[in-house]
User: Which sequence fits this backbone?
């Protein structure tokens, strides 16, 4: 079940399960998050696209093996697909496996509203929320502003955890 949306619903955001025939869309969302980084390689466009497709396929396989029960959701605004959200739930913890928006949907409060809604739903059910964030990812500031704290250094990634207001952060499941 996707988390109930309140803040995000005010922005005309909805969630629905991703369909098997939407792998290309999910890959396009992934690719949009790496465009600037890949552009620095100086590769021809067809090489960039092939690399990003391969990277998305590897990520997809990794997520399927590490988070086999994750909900793979499509984020929509007014019926238009604008991103993806993957959530894995364990006893006591909701892991935001992946949240990504297409460029035109970024920096408008959608991600913040969704994370707030995920946290509120988790809190109402007595669960913490965790996410792995690349150390240099600008979204890390958003998570910190929302009350996430680093609980484990995983090299390139920082495991961050949100606890209900007034609780101390601690190690998350998995």
Assistant:
């Amino acid at each position: 079940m996707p988390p109930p949306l309140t803040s995000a619903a005010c922005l005309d955001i909805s969630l629905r399960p991703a369909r098997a025939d939407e792998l290309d869309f999910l890959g396009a969302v992934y690719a949009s998050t790496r465009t600037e980084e890949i552009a620095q390689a100086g590769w021809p466009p067809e090489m960039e696209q092939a690399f990003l497709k391969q990277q998305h396929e590897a990520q997809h396989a990794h997520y399927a093996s590490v988070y086999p029960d994750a909900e793979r959701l499509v984020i929509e605004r007014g019926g238009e697909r604008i991103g993806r959200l993957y959530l894995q739930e364990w006893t006591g913890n909701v892991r935001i496996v992946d949240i990504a928006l297409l460029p035109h949907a970024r920096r408008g409060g959608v991600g913040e509203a969704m994370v707030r809604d995920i946290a509120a739903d988790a809190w109402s059910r007595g669960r913490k929320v965790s996410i792995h964030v690349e150390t240099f990812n600008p979204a890390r500031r958003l998570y910190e502003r929302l009350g996430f704290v680093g609980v484990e250094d995983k090299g390139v990634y920082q495991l961050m955890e949100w606890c209900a207001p007034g609780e101390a952060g601690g190690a998350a499941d998995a």
About this structure: Residues 169-173 have pLDDT under 50 and may be disordered. Residues 114 and 147 are 14 Å apart (CA to CA). Helices lie at 23-32, 35-39, 45-66, 110-124, 139-145.
